[in-house]
C-alpha cells in the first residue's frame, strides 16, 4: 500500500448540507421558486456534480425548457451563484473534518506515505474547505489532486481516479481509496482501487457492494468506533489499512467489517 486517495464531500467532511443550503440560496438569488429539502437532495445526490444535478432537477420539473446551450448557460450561472454561497459559508464557518481524517493524514505524512484527493466538486470548494484546516498551502499536503476541473466526467465514471493514479504514477492495486457514496465506490472500483467506505447521512442507504470495508467513520481515540469484527483497535489506522489491503490484493475476501451498531448496508448486501 503506497498511497491513500480521499474523496472530499461526505468523506473528508460532512459538506452536503452546506451544499444544499448554497443551492437554495442561489435559487433565491436567481428568482427561482425552487427549494430543495434534505429528502429531495438525498435523491438528487445520486447525480454527481452540482451542474449535472441542477440540469437533472430542471429536466425533472420542466423538461421542455431544460434543453440546449441556453439551458446549460443558465445552469452554469446558477451554479456560479451556488459556489459563491458555498465557499463564503465554508471559508467563514469552516466545516470540521470527519473523525479520524486529520489523524490518518498526519500518520501517513509521518510514515512518508503519499495522500491524494479525487473529487467531483468544484476546485474553489476545495480551497474553501481545506485552507481552513491546512492553511493557504494546503495543496502541498497532497501529492495529487483530481477535481471537477481536471476530470469533467463525474463519478461513477472512473476518470478522476484514473487521473489521480496517473499523477501518482502508481497502479490501482498499490492504493486505498476512501469514499462516502455508492457512486464514489463505483468510480474507485472501476479504476481498480480497493476502497473503504465511510457513509454520510445522505448516503447511508447506498449500495456498497465490493467495498474493502464499510465503517461509520475512521474513528480516533476520542471518537472510537464500535468494536470491529476481527480488530481489537477501535479506529482505522495505517496498520489496519495495510492488513485490509493485503487481504484485498491477495484476493482473499476480507471479512465484512460492520460496526454492529452501524445502520449501514452490510458490505455484501444485495443491491
Ligand atoms: C460530491 C459531489 C459534488 C458536490 C457539490 O463530490 O457530487 O457535486 O455535491 O459540489 P465528491 P459541486 O466527489 O467530493 O463526493 O456543486 O461543486 O459539484
Ligand atoms: Mg463524496
From TrEMBL:
<dbReference type="InterPro" id="IPR023214">
    <property type="entry name" value="HAD_sf"/>
</dbReference>
<dbReference type="GO" id="GO:0016787">
    <property type="term" value="F:hydrolase activity"/>
</dbReference>
<dbReference type="InterPro" id="IPR006439">
    <property type="entry name" value="HAD-SF_hydro_IA"/>
</dbReference>
<dbReference type="InterPro" id="IPR036412">
    <property type="entry name" value="HAD-like_sf"/>
</dbReference>
<dbReference type="InterPro" id="IPR044999">
    <property type="entry name" value="CbbY-like"/>
</dbReference>
<dbReference type="Pfam" id="PF00702">
    <property type="entry name" value="Hydrolase"/>
</dbReference>
<dbReference type="InterPro" id="IPR023198">
    <property type="entry name" value="PGP-like_dom2"/>
</dbReference>
<keyword id="KW-0378">Hydrolase</keyword>
<protein>
    <submittedName>
        <fullName>HAD family hydrolase</fullName>
    </submittedName>
</protein>
Amino acid at each position: 500500500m503506497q498511497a491513500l486517495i480521499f474523496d472530499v464531500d461526505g468523506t473528508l467532511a460532512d459538506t452536503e448540507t452546506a451544499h444544499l443550503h448554497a443551492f437554495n440560496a442561489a435559487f433565491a438569488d436567481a428568482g427561482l421558486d425552487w427549494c430543495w429539502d434534505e429528502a429531495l437532495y438525498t435523491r438528487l445526490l445520486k447525480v454527481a456534480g452540482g451542474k449535472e444535478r441542477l440540469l437533472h432537477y430542471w429536466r425533472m420539473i420542466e423538461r421542455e425548457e431544460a434543453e440546449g446551450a441556453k439551458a446549460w448557460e443558465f445552469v452554469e450561472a446558477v451554479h456560479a451563484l451556488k459556489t459563491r454561497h458555498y465557499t463564503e459559508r465554508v471559508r467563514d464557518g469552516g466545516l470540521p473534518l470527519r473523525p479520524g481524517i486529520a489523524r490518518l493524514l498526519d500518520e501517513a505524512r509521518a510514515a512518508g506515505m503519499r495522500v491524494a484527493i479525487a473529487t467531483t466538486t468544484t476546485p474553489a470548494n476545495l480551497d474553501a474547505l481545506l485552507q481552513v484546516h491546512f492553511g493557504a498551502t494546503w495543496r502541498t499536503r497532497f501529492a495529487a489532486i483530481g477535481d471537477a476541473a481536471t476530470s469533467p466526467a463525474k463519478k461513477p465514471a472512473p476518470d478522476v481516479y484514473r487521473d489521480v493514479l496517473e499523477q501518482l504514477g502508481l497502479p490501482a492495486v498499490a492504493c486505498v481509496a476512501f469514499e462516502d457514496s455508492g457512486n464514489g465506490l463505483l468510480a474507485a472500483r472501476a479504476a481498480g482501487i480497493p476502497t473503504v467506505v465511510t457513509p454520510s447521512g445522505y448516503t447511508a442507504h447506498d449500495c456498497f457492494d465490493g467495498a474493502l470495508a464499510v465503517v461509520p467513520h475512521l474513528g480516533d481515540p476520542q471518537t472510537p468506533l464500535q468494536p470491529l469484527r476481527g480488530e481489537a483497535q477501535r479506529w482505522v489506522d495505517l496498520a489496519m489499512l495495510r492488513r485490509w489491503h493485503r487481504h484485498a490484493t491477495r484476493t482473499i475476501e476480507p471479512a465484512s467489517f460492520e460496526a454492529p451498531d452501524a445502520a449501514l448496508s452490510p458490505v455484501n448486501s444485495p443491491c
